[in-house]
Amino acid sequence: MRWALLVLLATLLGVALLAKLEFGGRGDLPMQLDELYFATCAARGLVSGEVPVAGCHDNKGPLIFLLYQSVMDPAHPYRLATIKLAGFTLGGLVCLLGGLVAHRVGGRVAAVLTLALALQSSTLDPWFFSLRTESLGLACLLLATLVLLPRGTQPLAWWRVLLAGVLCGLALLTRQNFLFLVLGIAGWLAFTQRGGLHRLALLALLFGTGVLAPMLAFALIFQLQGTLPEYGASLFIYPALYGSNGDEGVIRRLLLKLALLAEYAQPLSAYVALGVLGATALARRVVPVEADALPAARLVLVLAGMSLVFLVLVPVLLRPHLWPSLLLAAVLAGPLLARGLAQHEWRMPVVALLLALVVLTVLCAWGGPQGNPLRDRKNLQAPQIAEARGGYAYVVGMWPKIYVDNGWTPASTVMYPIALPGAPQTWAFKPPEAGSWKARLLTQLREHNERQLLADFARTPPRAIVTIDRDARRPDSSDATDIPVLRDYIAVHCVPGRRLDEDTPYAASLFICGR
């Protein structure tokens, strides 16, 4: 145990160095750009009295916005130190939960080593400690796993299955793609529980009821708020359109995604290899597992496999999507490394390997090979708009940093161009085929959103509107925006300002409104 604790202590030193970097020299930068998207949407909900907020017409469920609203100061909603602290806390909780799952499989030493490995792999890239949907959903799924793995060999109590279902339902309200892991848990329940068809049907009913309960509870809240359409769109319609801008065939898209996955995983190859070795050792019983720990080992193997399905089938693959697989790789590797520490001839090589990984993660935390472009200040600068500082504003496009740097609150919850008629095709969105069910739903939703946008502008008029060229209009258009409702509003209520960030991806036009 003392060698495992030594590795954990060294790992905690690496986490401390990353924290010093993030709260010190990088204190004015987000750990990941999505933090600013979530923060601006949550800020809009706080000022409009929508707590929780149904969403801002993105493809995310409401739970992440509720988490942001719970940690943000309404008077200073964009204080990055608060968001980073919450991200570190949530990331640490996920690693700790992974250690507890490993304890069910391989005991105390495996738990300590899993915690160390999870902290190391999350430190390797600052994205993994950012306050994102992956960490929040993974925490819910790990809690569900622990609930389903009581000590001993007694049959699962009904309340455990129901509670696990509720936790899985909460995970789905962070990322719908976690459905693959939830199906893995359901399959594990179906194939490991004994008691006949009657008991299996009861467990299925309890688990399904639990999964649906959070969704129905939020639906009731948003019905009372009058934002039920936004809730349904964020859960179902926008996810069905996200990642749709791909003209390649299915096989080519899959191959491109696998190539991208290999690129993302390259700096993490040591942890991936340890996870594969750990999975093989558990599956082939190279690592002895006690009888009452076999269900835990099997469930972890199932979840690890489904996390890979998650990576392959996610519409747009980004580096943070690797976090569930990496965490489960640490859970699988922990028992194998614990067995190595228990054998005298393997003890020093295992310790040396783990300490070398600590050094690697520390080097990467200081700007090493992960090559995260968001650490470059140039990519996160936004112009200061002295003529419209503070108050409400509206940005037509994907540029949350300009809200943050100018102290703006979004003037509407309809924040993304995809939600409005006339929005151009983007890298992640292609209008659905005319006449399809997606097109019909999107048309109805956009008509609703136009009315909602104008109602929001009437309550909280924007002092400025910024139209980002690439998101607001087609390349051959001469208008500032091709979105009719915004073009008409600008013509009546605003005057042209100046061009912003010319010759950059964020080239935009500024309009000053309400004068």
Automatic annotation (TrEMBL):
InterPro entries: LipidA_mod_glycosyltrf_83 (IPR050297). Its main location: membrane. It is found in: Cell membrane. One of its GO terms (cellular component) is plasma membrane. Keywords: Cell membrane, Glycosyltransferase, Membrane, Transferase, Transmembrane, Transmembrane helix. One of its GO terms (biological process) is lipopolysaccharide biosynthetic process. GO terms for molecular function: pentosyltransferase activity. It is a multi-pass membrane protein. Signal peptide: none annotated. The chain crosses the membrane at residues 81-102, 135-150, 157-172, 178-193, 200-222, 268-287, 299-316, 322-338, 350-368. This is Glycosyltransferase RgtA/B/C/D-like domain-containing protein. It comes from Roseateles depolymerans.
